[in-house]
Write a structure and sequence with these properties.
By secondary structure, the chain is mainly alpha-helical. Helix content is 80%, strand content 0%.
């Protein structure tokens, strides 16, 4: 047995040349990519700014952090949550019929192909571009952020919904059909119980993403806490920036913990 193993080992394919070529090509690509990195802008002033940002985060402006007016961090965080939540809800609702129309196991191939093309087109445009478009239409504010989050959610949520629909266990539907159930009963007892956990889990996951995107969209005036953050940083008010970042960190941690608990509960039943 040992002799056969040694013979098989000796006859193994000699791949070291192929692996060496791959390593050399990867190293060459890394060196070539690194040649485009410019460090001429890195100065002591930049390092000082970085230290000031860290100092502001660890010494936040408590007056702004606990200010309960519309200019305070709690209100801005609440506005950001509302933009992300409503954007997720609207996007998820729009995604349901679009996903059913794009599922290849439920609709004709031509209709499913057209639906997937629409979803791909929606996903192609970055959130920043949508934000700038809606700001031009509705003006700056939370409503532009809501519309942006809704449209951005449709692209990803629809794709996940389609996968869930195409993974349906058709044997359950055949059993209900053999039992004489109506179409509504098959949807109620055969389709909805299979899809709801996946649909809810996808929507919660998208809410986590939208919460972070809503913060970034505030930079272009689409509501939320992003605009005050960039204004504070441009004005070198690092304590105010630290207050906003501290509030964001706490908010993201809380939402992440809650959403994880809910997703685990949905997965385990």
């Amino acid at each position: 047995m040992n002799k056969r193993i040694e013979e098989a080992y000796a006859k193994r394919p000699k791949r070291w040349i192929y692996e060496l070529v791959i390593v050399l090509i990867t190293a060459a690509l890394l060196v070539w990519s690194g040649s485009a990195v410019e460090t001429s802008g890195t100065t002591q002033n930049g390092a000082k700014i970085a230290l000031n940002i860290l100092a502001g985060i660890f010494h936040p402006d408590t007056d702004l952090l606990f200010n309960l007016t519309t200019q305070g961090v709690p209100y801005l965080l609440l506005e950001t949550i509302c933009i992300a939540f409503l954007g997720t809800v609207v996007g998820a609702v729009i995604s349901v019929p679009l996903a059913f129309l794009s599922a290849s196991n439920l609709t004709p191939a031509q209709v499913a192909f057209l639906g997937r093309i629409i979803i791909m087109a929606v996903r192609t445009v970055p959130a920043f571009v949508y934000g700038l478009m809606f700001i031009r239409v509705t003006g700056p504010g939370a409503f532009a952020g809501l519309l942006t989050m809704s449209l951005c959610s449709v692209g990803m949520v629809s794709k996940m919904y389609i996968e869930a629909i195409e993974d349906l266990d058709t044997k359950i539907l055949e059993s209900l059909d053999a039992a004489g159930c109506s179409s509504w009963q098959k949807i109620r007892y055969g389709i909805v119980p299979q899809l709801m956990p996946n649909f809810a889990s996808t929507a919660i996951y998208r809410f986590d993403i939208n919460l972070r995107d809503a913060t970034v969209l505030g930079l272009v005036g689409a509501g939320g806490i992003g605009a005050p953050l960039i204004f504070a940083m441009n004005s070198y008010r690092w304590n105010e920036a630290g207050s906003i970042l501290a509030g964001l960190i706490v908010l993201v941690l809380i939402v992440e913990w809650i959403s994880t608990k809910i997703r685990v509960k949905l997965a385990r039943g």
